[in-house]
Amino acid sequence: MDRSGLADFLRRRRAAAVPDRPGPRQTAGLRREEVAARAFISIDYYTRLEQRRGPRPSEQVAAALATALRLTADERDHLFTLIGHNPPVRDDGVTTIDPALRMLLESLDDSAAMVNSNIGQTLLQNPFARTLFGDLTRFAGLDRSGYYRWFARPGERDLYPVDVHEAQSRTYAASIRAAMDLGPDAAELAGLVSALLGVSAEFATLWSRHEVHACRAETTAILHPGAGRVDFDCHVVFGEGRRQKLLVLRPRPGAEAHSRAVAAAGDPR
Known about the structure:
Blueprint: H1 3-16, H2 32-39, H3 43-50, H4 59-68, H5 73-83, H6 99-106, E1 112-117, E2 122-125, H7 127-133, H8 146-152, H9 165-179, H10 186-199, H11 201-208, E3 217-224, E4 228-238, E5 244-251, H12 255-265
Antiparallel strand pairs: 1-2, 1-5, 3-4, 4-5
């Protein structure tokens, strides 16, 4: 526990906090008793924390202090670290789309683009991607993960030529390994891996190789009913913390490839 760092952080966040009842005050921010009341702890206990004294707060008290001071997720994580606890697992990995990735996706109209979590859950698609691949955000449960569907649902591969299956399987298994170092929730990831090991011998074999790879670029292809085979270069841009990523699929160089891709998507522009 970093007592000096914690005391300084609490004092500065308290001074920056907005009171519930605005009005003239002798000092900016909240009073100590106001923070203590919001956190449901005694004023004496809180005062000792700001004075570098007292016992280490529990995780429950740390969470209460974060709420009382209305800390951002980054500030909350810092508070937990100062106290000596592991920061809580963030739940915004698949509920709040990285704003930078959203902005990039919305700027693309000549490429298929989608924002995925690092375990293959599609969070957002542009019109081009939705027309080519269908609505990938509609799934629930384990099927939310495209990685799970790839190994557990045979029909998932019908959109892809057979010659890309092996490389895609290997990439997906290695990507799940890479996700283990970054989140999401450990129980969710363990459940995904356990389920895949139970339904797919192919995944079990790939998993046993212990390959780790957060894919940043690859080539792939789809079989479209109206346009035939369309080959893509896929580029990946990771968001902050690498828990979300933007996939940008551009038709392989050549006017014919591009025209087929546009035709397959019905020219979403």
